[in-house]
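Hey team,

Sharing the Xaa-Pro aminopeptidase run so nobody has to redo it. Sequence (430 residues) first:
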Amino acid sequence: MKYHPINSSLFIKNRANFTAAMQPKSIAVFNSNDIYPISADSTMPFEQHRDIFYLSGVDQEESVLMLFPDCPNPDLREVLFVRETNDHIAVWEGEKLTKEAAFKTSGIKTVYWLQDLEKILFEMSTYADTFYINTNEHYRASVETETREDRFTKWLLAKYPAHSVAKSNPTLQHLRSVKDKIELDLMQHACNITEKGFRRILNFIKPGVWEYEIEAELIHEFVKNRSKGFAYTPIIASGNNANVLHYIENNQQCKDGDLILFDIAAEYANYKSDLSRTVPVSGKFSTRQKAVYNAVNHVKKEATKLLVPGTLWKEYHVEVGDIMTSELLKLGLLDKADVQNEDKNWPAYKKYFMHGTSHHIGLDTHDYGLLHEPMQANNVFTVEPGIYIPDEGFGIRLEDDVVIQEKGEPINLMGNIPIEADEIEDLMQS
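Structure output:
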């Protein structure tokens, strides 16, 4: 891995928190992700399943974690299975985890080779009544591919039909949404790498540059700083491209007078950052562009203040919508009649700001979090209002990642990344 080793105390703590919520006499099973094929003998880069990583730190394919906290055999209360390594694998694929390295990474003492799984699982199953299976229940999930986890679950339930079944996901949704200090440090590191990339491109951008050239500058800076690269598919949208919310072609030339909307960020150690900024190609905003920019920035600042313990998700978005409506009225994009006659299910402001303001972020860009739960300290959210005006040929989105505090306003993990319009202009023209 490119990233520095993570202290195994994080994963030990995460497992303890999860097992404390399990039913008596139950086993929870977590699988690594597949390596997905492209064609011929080509594969996509491996990305570890975030749940097994969260609970073990193991960042390797063909790994399985089993948790059985009250097993009568103390050696089987935490069991990790990894692919057996050898000299041949080391030469052709690179070194894999040894049992000793797996223990050092995870803090799990009982490590077996994967070929022993069925035998060990049978012994564990004789003590257990329930299996916790790990389904994907994220509110944005829409998965058509059958995963390694899915295949294992099918096999497990067919092999042990007399056992009861429980779900791991609701517990993980809650636990993963509240970040440990080590996790916050990793996310801060990802944000710091993102800052380096953003500052790099401010002096690179000029009329005539291509969106993909900017993308190349960013990936250079990210990888140079031990990131695998972008935390998600980057958006580098000049001119009217910014009005396509998920524009990812990044293949247009940037023109004098246009704005470029960036939704780009680095990952570090599988933890994500998520940044949006909008900058003028020429290095200077027009009067109108700056007015809209400052309106978006104002909404972002006011929305951030609302992210405090006890806030409810739905109420938060209603309040942000009211703030945005006020700014759109000032800009002349809405009038009082638009607001008076609006459909309450699709308020007037949605014409110019059609997406949500915030989402959880962590091991996933749209991270785990139960939206019906009140917000609490150490939840990490994005704050990303935008105004999109196709008729005027530009869109503006600004986004930072913030950590809710017990008291007071959230801490901005991206507080060092330039955002004020005047500062952006000064840096681009320096």
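The chain has a mean pLDDT of 96.

Ping me if you want the raw files.
A.
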